[in-house]
């Protein structure tokens, strides 16, 4: 998948990894509500969620878009995202979920480090515009704990 085209993706958030917000989360320079990590991936709650449980799944290795990853990395990322989605949906008692994965400024990518949004949805959200929510520190801590527990219980 890596660079099999000459097309480029413009990203105003582009910058060196040392200034990357998600690299800072990966190496602990910035706090986050981590729900899962392994050698190559980290998943944490979105600070400004569309719904309670909205989680971001990232490769630890910095890359701006999917085009910076090889096929094995893309497969690994979505494998982790699928696993996390089960824990998120179970944990917050959702009825479904969305994956959103933005690449480039035109797609509204704001953080230039590859990530998959896992957004739990309820039946009552169906067809409705979902605005950003503001959850308290306690609610975020509790939500992260619920998702971690659900992950630990996955078969
Ligand atoms: P994008 O539009 O790039 O696909 O989404 C980036 C997401 O990262 C947004 O939903 C935004 O709320 C989230 N975000 C931005 N900065 C931070 C941060 O410092 N910590 C966390 N946990 N999420 C962030
Ligand atoms: Zn990064």
Please summarize what this structure is.
With 155 residues, the protein is of the alpha+beta class. The protein is 28% helix and 16% strand.
Provide the fold topology.
Blueprint: H1 21-26, E1 34-37, E2 41-45, E3 55-59, H2 71-92, E4 96-100, E5 116-121, H3 137-152
Antiparallel strand pairs: 1-2, 2-3, 3-5, 4-5
Helix pairs in contact: 2-3
The chain binds guanosine-5'-monophosphate and zinc ion (ZN).
Guanosine-5'-monophosphate is lined by residues 21, 30, 32, 44-48, 56, 102, 108-111.
Main attributes of the structure:
155 residues; alpha+beta; HIT family, subunit A; 16% strand; globular; binds guanosine-5'-monophosphate; binds zinc ion
Overview of this protein structure:
By secondary structure, this protein is α+β, with helices and mostly antiparallel strands. The chain has helices at 21-26, 71-92, 137-152, and strands at residues 34-37, 41-45, 55-59, 96-100, 116-121. It has a five-stranded antiparallel β-sheet with strand order 1-2-3-5-4. A hairpin with a 3-residue loop joins strand 1 and strand 2. The longest helix is centred in the middle third of the chain and has 22 residues, at 71-92. It binds guanosine-5'-monophosphate and zinc ion. Guanosine-5'-monophosphate binds at residues 21, 30, 32, 44-48, 56, 102, 108-111.
């Amino acid at each position: 998948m890596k660079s099999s085209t000459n097309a480029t993706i413009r990203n105003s958030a582009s910058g060196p990894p040392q200034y990357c917000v998600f690299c800072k989360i990966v190496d602990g320079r910035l706090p986050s509500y981590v729900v899962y990590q392994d050698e190559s991936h980290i998943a944490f709650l979105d600070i400004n969620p569309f719904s309670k449980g909205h989680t971001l799944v990232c490769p630890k290795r910095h890359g701006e878009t999917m085009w910076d990853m090889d096929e094995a990395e893309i497969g690994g990322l979505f494998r982790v995202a699928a696993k996390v989605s089960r824990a998120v949906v179970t944990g917050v008692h959702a009825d479904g979920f969305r994956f959103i994965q933005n690449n480039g400024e035109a797609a509204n990518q704001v953080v230039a480090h590859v990530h998959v949004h896992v957004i739990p949805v309820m039946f009552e959200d169906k067809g409705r515009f979902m605005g950003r929510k503001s959850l308290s520190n306690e609610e975020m801590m509790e939500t992260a704990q619920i998702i971690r527990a659900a992950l630990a219980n996955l078969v």
